[in-house]
Design a protein that fits this description.
Blueprint lengths: L1 H21 L1 H24 L4 H16 L4 H18 L7 H22 L5 H26 L3 E3 L3 E5 H21 L5 H29 L14 H22 L7
Antiparallel strand pairs: 1-2
């Protein structure tokens, strides 16, 4: 399983990093396709199918990610309207209106946030590369430290394998990646980026735990089996969704990129 996970990661990482470097619609299309697949997975977990509510969410989140290149505010409005309509179209007895609407928000808002962050002409490439590498480092560090050290579980009722040692390991690896990104992109506040990276690892782990809770509620192990060794797209980017949303909110609140703090 580990070998399959590594091979899949090696295959997927270069296109993602290249698209993030190119920005514009090259990156937006990648995010849009991922968003549509995540909507399919979300509704598949809820209903074991892909009805009108799921199809609407997939199309709307796909279009919102593309729209975010030029009209991010309109893209957010589109996601909000989609969430309301997806909830109305859902079958209450099967998947619940609240969960159908939540899925559109859970996928759509971070997807728009990622594209919006990349469109910053000064720091966009650095921020998205930082987010991707930070989340990957968190996953790798959490897995390695958790396996090597073990110890008390982080939240056993939700995830039976995640440990406190893994969380600390993820924070350390993420901070080291932050130092590397700061050096490569010539960012002045090196240690601030490292600190933000360590905190970002916590946010990513919260996103991971949330998706684990949803899967446990739905009685599934993975969101899908589309990625060999990893499960689904949601399984692969759950931490990125939460980190992108928080970073976008911090950027909006401060009026500047978090990497420029």
């Amino acid at each position: 399983m580990l070998k399959t996970r590594v091979i899949s990661a090696v295959v997927m990482a270069p296109p993602a990093l290249l698209a993030a470097w190119m920005g514009g619609y090259a990156f937006a299309v990648l995010v849009a396709v991922a968003a549509a697949l995540m909507c399919w997975e979300w509704h598949g977990m809820l209903t074991k199918g892909f009805g009108p509510s799921g199809r609407l969410a997939a199309v709307a989140c796909f279009l919102a990610a593309l729209l975010a290149v030029s009209q991010p505010h309109a893209a957010v409005v589109m996601v909000a309207i989609c969430a309301a309509m997806a909830a109305l179209l859902a079958k209450p007895e099967q998947d619940g209106r609240l969960w159908a609407g939540l899925g559109a928000l859970y996928v759509g808002l971070p997807s728009v946030a990622l594209v919006w962050l990349r469109e910053d002409p000064a720091m966009g490439a650095a921020v998205v590369w930082w987010l991707l590498l930070m989340v990957w480092a968190t996953d790798i560090g959490a897995y390695a430290f958790g396996r090597m050290i073990g110890g008390p579980l982080l939240l056993p009722a939700v995830s039976p394998k995640k440990t406190w040692a893994g969380l600390v390991g993820g924070m350390i690896c993420s901070a080291l990646v932050g130092l590397g990104v700061a050096a490569v992109f010539g960012l002045p506040a090196v240690f601030t980026v490292a600190l933000l990276s360590a905190l970002g690892a916590v946010v990513a782990q919260v996103g991971d735990l949330f998706e684990s809770w949803v899967k446990r509620r739905c009685g599934v192990k993975d969101s899908s089996s589309i990625i060999p060794g990893h499960g689904g797209v949601l399984d692969r980017v759950d931490g990125l969704l939460s980190a992108a949303f928080v970073v976008a909110a911090m950027t909006l609140a401060s009026g500047q990129s978090v990497l420029a703090w």
